[in-house]
From TrEMBL:
It comes from Arenibacter certesii. Residues 1-140, 149-271 form the UspA domain. Belongs to the universal stress protein A family. This is Universal stress protein UspA. InterPro entries: Rossmann-like_a/b/a_fold, Universal_stress_UspA, UspA.
Length: 273
C-alpha cells in the first residue's frame, strides 16, 4: 500500500476521504496524491483562446490557494502528500495518474445517490467506481484511526471474478485483515440449491488456488443480502467486483458495486472487472 490517490473538491466529504488515506498512510508509510480536477464550463470552452487561457490560469491559482488551506492539517503531519491539479474533469485522467505513479488505491468521499438521479447524474464516487482501473474505496463517514480487521468480499463466484478476487486477497493480506467471503442466494431464476452453490464456489476456489471458507447467505436481493451480511459480521470494508457499466446499459442492467457503494454505511471497495 505504497501510493494512494485521493480526488478532492475541497468539501467536507473529500476531507473524510483524505483523513482515511492519512490513517492508512501512517500505518504503511504510503504517499498520498491529492487530485483536484477543474470544472471548466462549456461556455468558457467555446470562448476565444485568450479567455479560456485566462480562466484556466485563474482556476489553477485558486486551486493552489485552496490546496494550501486544505492540506494544512495536523492529521497529515509525517505523511508525504503531493497535490495534483488537472484542467479538466475527465475520469480517464485518474487512470493515467494511477498508472504513472503505480497507485495501489483510490479513496473517494461520497454522500451517495439513489433513484433516477443516480442513473442519469450519479455521484463523483459512482463515476470513479465505474471508470477506475485500480481498486476504489468509497467512504461516507469519518472513522477515527481507520483500521481494517474484517474484509467481507462478495461475488457470484463466476470465474470472471477471479482477477477481482486476487486483487482483493492481495490487498487484504497487505492490510493484515481477515477475509470473509460470502455468496448471496436469492429466490427466483438465480436461486441455487446448497449443493449447487457449493459446487460453484468450490470450482472458483480451486481455480483461485485459495483455501478459504465461504458463507451462503439467503436474502430477497443481492444488494440487500450483501449489506445485511456485512452488518451482521461487523465488516470494516465490503469488497465487490464491478463491471462498471455505463449509459443506457447501466440503466437497464445496473451495477451492484455502484448501488452498494451508494447505499452502504460501511466503506465499500470495488474492483473493476
Amino acid at each position: 500500500m505504497k501510493k494512494i490517490i485521493v480526488p478532492v473538491d475541497f468539501s467536507e466529504t473529500s476531507e473524510v476521504a483524505l483523513k482515511t488515506a492519512a490513517s492508512i498512510a501512517k500505518k504503511f508509510g504510503s504517499e498520498i496524491f491529492v487530485l483536484h480536477m477543474l470544472e471548466m464550463s462549456d461556455s468558457w470552452m467555446t470562448s476565444n483562446e485568450d479567455v479560456v487561457q485566462q480562466q484556466a490560469v485563474f482556476l489553477m491559482r485558486y486551486a493552489e490557494m485552496k490546496f494550501g488551506e486544505f492540506l494544512d492539517k495536523p492529521y497529515l503531519n509525517g505523511v508525504k502528500v503531493t497535490p495534483i491539479v488537472k484542467r479538466h474533469k475527465v475520469y480517464s485522467e485518474v487512470n493515467a495518474i494511477a498508472e504513472k505513479h503505480q497507485a495501489d488505491l483510490i479513496i473517494m468521499g461520497s454522500h451517495g445517490t439513489s433513484g433516477i438521479k443516480g442513473v442519469f447524474v450519479g455521484s463523483n464516487a459512482e463515476k470513479m467506481v465505474r471508470n477506475a482501473h485500480v481498486p476504489v474505496l468509497v467512504i461516507k463517514d469519518e472513522i477515527v484511526d481507520f483500521e481494517v480487521r474484517r474484509f467481507v468480499f462478495a461475488c457470484d463466484f463466476g470465474l470472471e471474478n477471479l482477477p477481482a478476487f486476487h486483487k482483493a486477497k492481495a490487498l487484504t493480506d497487505k492490510l493484515a485483515a481477515e477475509m470473509i467471503m460470502v455468496y448471496v442466494n436469492t429466490p427466483g431464476d438465480n436461486f441455487l440449491s446448497t449443493k449447487d452453490a457449493f459446487k460453484k464456489i468450490n470450482l472458483f476456489l480451486h481455480k483461485a488456488k485459495a483455501s478459504l471458507e465461504v458463507e451462503i447467505f439467503n436474502d430477497y436481493s443481492v444488494e440487500r443480502g450483501i449489506l445485511s451480511f456485512g452488518e451482521s459480521r461487523s465488516a470494516d470494508i465490503i469488497g465487490l467486483p464491478t463491471h462498471g457499466r455505463k449509459g443506457i446499459n447501466h440503466f437497464f442492467m445496473g451495477s451492484i458495486g455502484e448501488d452498494i457503494a451508494n447505499r452502504s454505511k460501511t466503506p465499500v471497495m470495488t474492483f473493476k472487472l
